[in-house]
Predict the structure.
Amino acid sequence: KPMRLWGGRFEGGPADALTRLSVSVQFDWRLAPYDLLASRAHARVLHRAGLLTDDELQRMLAALDDLDRACRTGEFRPTVADEDVHTALERGLLERLGSLGGKLRAGRSRNDQVATDLRLYLRDHVRTIVSRLVELETALISQAEENAEVAAPGMTHLQHAQPVSFGHQLLAHVHPLSRDVDRLRDWDRRAAVSPLGSGALAGSSLPLDPAAVAAELGFDAPAPNSMDAVADRDFAAEFLFCAALIGVHISRLGEEIVLWASQEFRWIEVDDAYSTGSSIMPQKKNPDVAELARGKSGRLIGSLMSLLTTLKGLPLTYNRDLQEDKEPVFDAVDTLLLVLPAVSGMVSTMRVNRAKLEASAPDGFALATDLAELLVRRGVAFRDAHEAVGHLVVWCQVNDKDLGDLTDDELAKVSPHFAPSEGPGGTPGVRDVLNVHGALAARSAFGGTAPDRVRDQIVSLREIVDGQ
Ligand code: ARG
C-alpha cells in the first residue's frame, strides 16, 4: 500500500487516473537535496521549541544525513507510488527512524516546504547560470579585443549603414549579457526570503522560529506574510523572465553568427568542433549551435508564458495549479546550462575573416554620412549636405562608380558644395573623409566606435565582468 502524507479521512484509495495526474515526483525529485537542507533546519527549530529531545534531534539529523547520502548514490530512489519529493523523503525517513520520522512534519506543510525548496534550488542554480554568462561575456570580449581595429560594415535594416569596429559590434553583445547578470543578482535580493514557518497558509501554533530557519538556509529574512509566502511565485516568474531575455540575447547573437557564417557574408568561420554536416550534401558545414541558441529562445519564452498563465487568476493561497511551476523553471535552467557553454565555445573558437570585413566595410556608400558631416564642418546646413550627398550617391550608381573614385570635376558637377575637394589649410578634404579607418577614428566620443574608445570599453567591461 503506497505511503501517502494524507489519507486518514479517506475511505478507500485514490483512483488510478487521479494518481497519474497528481504525481510530480518524476520531475520534482531534483529538489531532494534542498528539501533535505530545509528538513535539517526544521528539525533544529523543533528541537529548540522543545518538541524534539536532544537524542531525537541527533537521530533525526543522522537519518537525514544518511538519506542525503543514499539519494546521492542512488541507493534511495523515489518510486511511482511516491506522490512527490516530500512524500518520497518522508518514506526514506520513516524507513530509517520508524515513528520518530513522523515527528518532522510538525509545524510544516508541503506548501511552505515546496516554496522553500524551489527558492533554494533556483538561488543555487542561478549562481551557476551567472558563471556561464560570465564565460560567454569573456569569450566575446576576447574576440572583441583581437578585432578592435578591424573595420566592418555596420548595419541598420540589415543594409550597410556606417563602418564600425568589428570589436565594437562584438561588445554590443556583451552589454545585454552584463545587464542579464545584473538582473539575476537583483533577482536574488527578492528571492532571498524564506517561506518556512508559514505552514499550509496561516503560520503555526507551535513555537517555531522562522527567522532562525531563514538564516540557517542562507535567506536574508523570513516571509512577512504566511499567506503570500505559500501563494507567491514571483521569484519563479521573474527568473523565467530573466531566462527568456537571456534567450532573446543569445538568439540575436546566434542570428548574427548564422548570417556572418553564410557564403554571402563570409565574415567568420565557425570552428569544426561547433559545426555539423549534412547527411546528403558532403560539402555542408552548418552553424547548428547558433541556430539552436536561436531556437531555444522559443522554449524559454514559452516557459515564462506558461507560468504567468498558470498564476493568473489563482485565488490565495496555495492551489494545486502551483505544482505546474516546476517544469518550466527546471526546463529553463536546463536549457540555459546546455546552450550557454556551447555558444561560449563557438564564439571563442570562431575565426574572423578580417580581409573580407575590411573590404566590405565601405560598400554600399557607407561613408556618405562622413561626407555630409564634412560639408557641415564647412558651414553647409545638414539638410543641404544630406541632399547633395544623396545626389552624389545616385550619380555614382548610374555611372557605376564608388564615392572614392570621383574626380574633382565630377564632384563639382554634382554640387558646388564639393568644390574644392581639398580642405583649406590642412583641414580634411573630400577624399580624406572617404576613408574607413578615418571614419572609425573620428567617432571618438564616449560610446563611439573609434578603436581607442573600443579599447576603453574593453577595460571597463573586463572590470565589470571580473566583479560579476
Ligand atoms: N507537489 C506539490 C507542489 O509541487 C506540493 C504539495 C502540496 N500539495 C497539497 N495538496 N497541498 O506544489
User: Anything to note?
Assistant: Residues 24, 28, 84, 110-111, 114, 318, 320, 322-323 surround arginine (CB under 6 Å).
